[in-house]
Amino acid sequence: MANLLLALVLWMLMFMVGVQGVLPKAGVLAPSSLLAQSGVRDGDVITQVGNQAIHSLADLRLAVLEGGVDSAKVPITFEHHGAVSTGVLNLTELKPLAGNSTDASRDVLKAIGFVLWSPAGDAVIHAVLPDSPAALAGLKQGDIITQINGASYRDPWALIDRVEQSAGVPVKLTVKRGENLDVIDVTPKAETQKMANGQIKTFGRMGAQLGLAPAAIEQAKRDGVHLLVLDRYDPLTALSMAAARSWSMTTLTFSVFGGLLTGQASLSNLSGPVAIAEFAGQSLIIGFSTFLGFLALVSLSLAIMNLLPVPLLDGGHLVMYVIEAIRGKPAEAAMEAFATKIGLFFLVSLMAVAFYNDISRLLH
User: Residue 202's domain spans which residues?
Assistant: First the structure.
């Protein structure tokens, strides 16, 4: 119960501090993509998926993950120049948790064919992960990348695509730092990723968070487009949204556990302390509100784990109490000892799988 209340408080603080995100405005979509088939067109802003209001890409990602786990056809609402339209987003074939959870959540927007709209402009580095290829090459926060391999690009997402296609291959980045232009060699790290359709692909990652240069954002604002959104709420609204987020993440977590038991979700979704520490560091680099959200998610996960009907956990004790109430007498000592051994074996096995996944990610 304490972890559940802590998660609620942390999410409430997150919504009060302010959640910064990217406007879910679609760019050029492939005609065969799930989004295009739902009726979304270039320049549309997605405002709702299912019963969830969409304010940012993070909201869209979570809504698609939930729909993908449930294999559902969900209603989708989008706007274009003030005109509101609706459609149906078919997620019946989307299995975002069939592989690694981190990769799946990163890939889920690609799986529905989402391409972020962007004005033309250079990419600026918002954050550099420690010990990443970008950090080792000397890239710094605030650097503006103007060219890659001597060629210009339209927007940051075109640059990201070029980097993803250069796994293990050195690229030359022309970087503007202050008034100086430098050429910096970076070798993107090759990472394998299991896509939502089950295919294994290799992508290049250089460990830098990219966004539009301030000049491009200001021009977009002058054109009436606000690409970055910051949602900040009063305490009562924040509490209501925190409760909704807690419920949403609880149902998603139980769906994942159910998928693990039925084989629809992979055991590679489990993460141990190494991955948790890594995600904590990354979320803190991105921003304080993101870090609060991460802590809330960890706290909620612990609360749900403790409620599982497994001996040694509170959920297991509740099951034993129910059995005793039905039988009208306490369970035999031998039965309790056997149940305890089963529970201990389950927990140790779960921890072993989580540690194995952590080590595998580090090695790859």
Answer: 123-222
